[in-house]
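Q: I'm a student working through a structural biology exercise. My instructor gave each of us a protein and asked us to get a predicted structure, then write a short paragraph describing it. Mine is Plasmid pRiA4b Orf3-like domain-containing protein. I'm not confident about reading structure output yet, so if you can add a plain explanation after the tokens, that would really help. Here is the sequence I was given:
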Amino acid sequence: MVYRCRIELNEIAPKIWREFQFHPDVTFHQLHKLIQVVMGWENYHLYEFHVNGQVVGLPDPTFEHMEDREVLNARRETVKKHVQEENSSFTYVYDFGDDWQHTVTLIKIDSTKSDPAPLCLDGARSCPQEDVGGVWGHQHLLEVLLTPNHPEREHFIDWVRKGYDPEHFSSEEVNREIQRLKDKLIPKALLKRPEGNKPVKLTKSALNKHLKQLNSDQLIDLVKACYGASKDMERFLAVRILGDEAVESLFQEYRKKVEQEFFPERGHGKLRLQEAKQAISEFERLTESVPFSLELKLIYVENGVDFTLSYGDIDERFYYSMASMYADIIDQVNEDETAVLFDEFEERLEAVVSKSEGIGWGFHDNLAELHAQIRWI
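A: Happy to help. First, here is the predicted structure for Plasmid pRiA4b Orf3-like domain-containing protein. I'll explain a few features afterward.
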């Protein structure tokens, strides 16, 4: 059995749409990944589905106690459990900042087909640019690109992804990408694995044993291969080989990632706090630099305060995230027996508290209480 669906991007004319099929036992998280491919999104942002009055997404345990709605876990809920009738529709929301709303309609339930592999069947027009500013931003971009003497044209041409053509769509290109990701888009129970083969995992002891057997040239080749394997591995090796110089360079890169969620170079901040926090965690993992990691966390809180002072009070969830990050900073400062971190960040830690005065949700009081816990005061 396969589900044949049509997805349309709402409020866009002419329509941007796709028809595609998939096995109904996929989870909503797998469906999200498939939609990203068939539409042409780049999976930069959060998402959720609205199905029969229920919300399906990725619950954030940090804010679970503050949610005024139930969010079903997209990694566990299957599509078939919630969508069972032909011509029924549900909504897929991608990027809570740009707020791209898609309508997904189950066109046909085909019981004659058994291949669980998804397939893109048809479609029209290219997906909008990521972070373009939603429907209005997309329409403005098209207007600029179609106006030869528009004052913003040169800026937008440099900004759009290479080769962008708003009228382009190719199901062949989409299906090549689907084929590459196929194993992630098929229900786990239906994945065909070679009989008798068990998953192979490289243990630390096995790695250590293997490395001892390599000569210097083989070790060099291995490190070179690791360097080219991924961007993260390249950064990791840069830190280990180049030291402080690489750490500082990475810090500037990740600082920009955090700051752009509040004050981007273009447009308004989208406050994708989870992405900013993920950038901080990545930097911490790659560099293991306590001072720079602490500074990134402080930049996160400072930008949160500045954002409020610029645009007004946000919400309880926002300030809870800021206060939690500030608490992490205070914990790290207190764990430093030398007081070096306190000396380095004392003025900025106090300034954040002072600037937060007058902000709602008890935010200032929370920061003041946390600041008072610094052991060196």
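A: Here are two points you could use in your paragraph. Strands lie at 2-9, 17-22, 47-51, 54-57, 71-73, 89-94, 100-110, 119-124. The first helix runs from residue 28 to 39. It's a good idea to check both against the output above yourself.
Q: Great, thank you!
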